[in-house]
Amino acid sequence: MGRTIHFEETVTSTQKIAQSLANDGVQEGTIVVADQQTNGRGRMSRAWYSPSGTGIWMSMIIRPNIPVNTTPQLTLLTAVAIVQAIEELTPLKPDIKWPNDIMINGKKVVGILTELQAEADQVHSVIIGTGINVNQKTEDFPEDLQTIATSILIETGTSWERAQLIQTILLRFESLYSLFLSKGFKPIKLLWESYAISLNKILIARTLKGTVEGKAIGIDDDGALLIETCDKRIEKIYSADIELK
Ligand code: BTN
């Protein structure tokens, strides 16, 4: 991973640049990193606040030979790689809130957006975008984010070298990705579960189709969250906002 890194000062979105590089056929493992994004995108068409000088705004291009419906597994794998890197470099112990929010003390420090290009049922390329709040102070966040977002600096009291974090994340990702390609999702799932805060808790999942409330009993092999409702039905959730009760 990261043998070719495109570093840009300012872009609209690293996802957009990575998508066009993927269309041009660049090799697997190509990375796009920007100091600032003017139109950073989050899940569910939300904006992602990406100011200059403080965060890691990065998109990775990979080309696994997997069917489309298993790509959520790669989002979970990326979350594990980032948690491991943060644990390796800092004293922090982040948690993962399904599917891919990395939280510290109940506030979001990392978001992951996985987008794919596919033909029929087969993946052509996967663009994994990661937004990591590294060196923002509380007052650097817009007011509406201050109560829900945090940064590694806020949680540790010191600033961190972004390049070193990127390097550690890429190394962690590379080793988990080769584990995934050789042994499948099972070992990744076990690691993910060890960091998950959403499991065995009562929660509300807000999906585009409606709201599901119940106990999170696990994740399925395709990365979906399994919720047991109060009438004992098992609902499979692929995309939602989660509120822990
Ligand atoms: C989320 O909603 O939690 C996902 C946020 C993903 C943000 C990252 S920043 C780098 C890449 N470029 C984007 O426009 N979005 C992703």
| Rg, nearest Å | 17 Å
* Bound small-molecule species: biotin
Total helix count? 6
The assigned CATH architecture of the largest domain is 2-Layer Sandwich
Q: Tell me, what is the CATH class of the largest domain?
A: Alpha Beta
Q: Order of strands across the widest beta sheet?
A: 1-2-3-7-6-5-4
On the 0 to 100 scale, the average pLDDT is: 93
At the fourth CATH level, what is the homologous superfamily of the largest domain? Bira Bifunctional Protein, Domain 2
Residue runs with pLDDT of under 50 for 5 or more positions? none
Q: What is the total tally of β strands?
A: 12
Distance between the termini: 38 Å
Number of domains: 2
Q: What pattern of helices and strands is seen along the backbone? A: EHEEHEEEEHHHHEEEEE
Q: Which percent range describes the beta-strand content?
A: 25-35%
| Shape category | globular
The helix content is 25-40%
> Could you say what the CATH topology of the largest domain is called?
BirA Bifunctional Protein, domain 2
What is the makeup of the main sheet?
7 strands, mixed
Q: Look at the helices and sheets and give the structural class.
A: alpha+beta
SSE blueprint:
Elements: E1 5-11, H1 14-23, E2 31-37, E3 55-62, H2 72-89, E4 95-97, E5 101-104, E6 107-119, E7 122-133, H3 143-146, H4 152-156, H5 162-183, H6 186-195, E8 202-207, E9 210-219, E10 225-228, E11 234-237, E12 241-244
Helix pairs in contact: 2-5, 2-6
The structure holds biotin (BTN).
Biotin binds next to α1, β3, β6 and β7.
